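Reminder to self: tokens first, then the designed residues, so the page reads top to bottom the way the pipeline ran.
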């Protein structure tokens, strides 16, 4: 009987530890790249900012696929695939793998802004996202 209770608690603790590690690792990398001041406000601005795509002339932003609220389910503009909410408060599976965070920052900044995001920009955005 006792074991049944202990196992889920341990699982919860370990999954939280994993998510803290990936985010911590990202921030220590940003610091190593010279980032000293991190701004959630700038992160929010960048997340919502609309960039005109040079090829299509259309406006693109992170919210184009990730919905206008981080707590809502988004939808991929091209494939129509649903994208789970980005807010950590309601989606604990977010930001748990360094590889995943890096992959999507790279791909999505390129698609949205037309270039990769700097360490400073990523730090600001991630700081904003994990607080939601
Ligand atoms: C064309 C659609 C699209 C746009 C625009 C977009 N994303 Fe994403 N993003 C995705 C998809 C698809 C995933 C992967 C599926 C998932 O994590 O649910 C993802 C995942 C992510 C992740 C990984 C989250 C995690 O749990 O590790 C980050 C970080 C991210 N996006 C940041 C951004 C930023 C920053 C922008 C704007 C510069 C942006 N995205 C714009 C489609 C998009």
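Designed residues (132 positions):
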């Amino acid at each position: 009987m006792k074991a049944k209770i202990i196992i889920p608690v341990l699982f919860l603790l370990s999954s939280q530890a994993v998510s803290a590690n990936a985010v911590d690792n990202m921030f220590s990398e940003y610091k190593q790249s010279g980032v000293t001041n991190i701004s959630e406000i700038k992160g929010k601005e960048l997340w919502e900012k609309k960039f005109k795509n040079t090829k299509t002339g259309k406006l693109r932003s992170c919210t184009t696929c990730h919905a206008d609220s981080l707590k809502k389910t988004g939808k991929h503009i091209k494939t129509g695939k649903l994208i789970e909410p980005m807010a950590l408060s309601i989606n604990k599976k977010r930001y748990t793998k360094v590889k995943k965070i890096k992959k999507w920052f790279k791909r999505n900044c390129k698609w949205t802004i037309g270039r990769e995001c700097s360490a400073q920009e990523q730090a600001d955005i991630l700081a904003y996202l994990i607080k939601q």
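Residues 62, 64-66, 76-77, 83-84, 94-95, 100-101, 104-105, 108-109, 111-113, 125 surround heme C (CB under 6 Å).
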